[in-house]
Specification:
Elements lengths: L1 H14 L2 H28 L8 H40 L2 H7 L4 H41 L4 H7 L2 H32 L3 H20 L3 H17 L17 H5 L2 H22 L5
Helix pairs in contact: 1-5, 2-3, 2-5, 3-5, 3-7, 5-7, 5-11, 7-8, 7-9, 7-11, 8-9
Length: 286
């Protein structure tokens, strides 16, 4: 069972190259942007940086590293969404479902191996790519500052490398569990209908419009917004989100773990995955 599951996960990574190509491509774009923009930024702050307040110095130095991580992790989320929409639908469209059902691979193994991609594989790849990209950015900044005769001690004194790396990992884990019901719902829709994207987007839009017309409220929109962005507000202290996360004091894991939305979401994710497994058993090629 473990060997079959592991090979199923590997097959998904081999067949869906965007899982690792997309984060790498975005990382390359980030490095190009840094290469083009860093000389201008260095000239802007070279003379006045040491006179700025320490908090502002921290923010200026940490910002490129925070943006690097944010862009790469956002890419991983987007890739995960489109992967889930196509994961179980694609095998029906290209009729490969007939082949895989003839193999000794259960529907549960198939669905759970596909769920592993957005929940664990993509975040892991994005984390490693983000760390390597940040290391290259740091190396580039070191070379640039040294070439301009700027003291490097201030850079390394204000750059909180370990807290930033741990905070990034914490943020990834937080969002893995927070987004679990989204990925599971998309997998269920992927195996249930012919056009998964429309069945996800249209109900979201229609429900909000009908609620606004009928009641003048936007509770459905607030719920969707909370599901997409709520992890940040629940897992980090509000006063600590006005700047890049450079300190453990900005994290709030107790609040996150005590949030009903987390546990209700995980229950919903389990229900959606169970439904996807059951639905796949009766699905035929399109």
């Amino acid at each position: 069972m473990k060997s079959t599951f592991a090979w199923s996960v590997r097959r998904e990574v081999w067949e869906h190259k965007a899982v690792w190509l997309a984060p790498l491509g975005v990382a390359l774009l980030v490095l190009v942007a840094f290469l083009l923009g860093s000389p201008r930024v260095t000239l802007t702050h070279a003379g006045s940086f040491s006179s700025l307040p320490p908090a502002q110095q921290n923010q200026i130095i940490a910002m490129p590293f925070s943006l690097t991580a944010a862009v790469i992790l956002l890419t991983a989320f987007v890739v995960g969404v489109f992967y889930c929409l196509d994961a179980l639908h694609g095998e029906r469209r290209d009729r490969s479902i007939l082949f895989w059902k003839s193999m000794p691979v259960s529907d549960r193994t198939t669905v759970l191996s596909k769920a592993t991609i957005p929940l664990f594989v993509l975040p892991s790849i994005a984390f490693v790519v983000a760390l390597v990209t940040q290391a290259i950015v740091l190396l580039g900044a070191t070379v640039l500052l040294k070439a301009r005769g700027i003291d490097l001690a201030l850079l390394y004194d204000r750059l909180h490398i370990v807290p930033m790396a741990v905070s990034m990992l914490y943020g990834i884990v937080v969002h893995i569990f927070w987004y679990a019901p989204i990925y599971a719902l998309l997998l269920m829709v992927s195996t249930a209908v012919r056009r998964p994207f429309l069945w996800v987007v249209l109900p979201v839009v229609v429900v909000q419009i009908l609620e606004k017309i009928a009641f003048g409220t936007n509770h459905s929109g607030d719920f969707i917004k909370y599901r997409l962005l709520g992890a940040i507000g629940e897992a980090f202290k509000p006063e600590g989100m006005n700047q890049p996360v450079i300190s453990f004091s900005q994290l709030d894991p107790i609040r996150y773990l005590s949030t009903p939305g987390l546990w209700l979401g995980l229950l919903a994710a389990a229900a959606f995955l169970y439904a996807a497994i059951r639905l796949r058993r009766s699905r035929e090629p399109l």
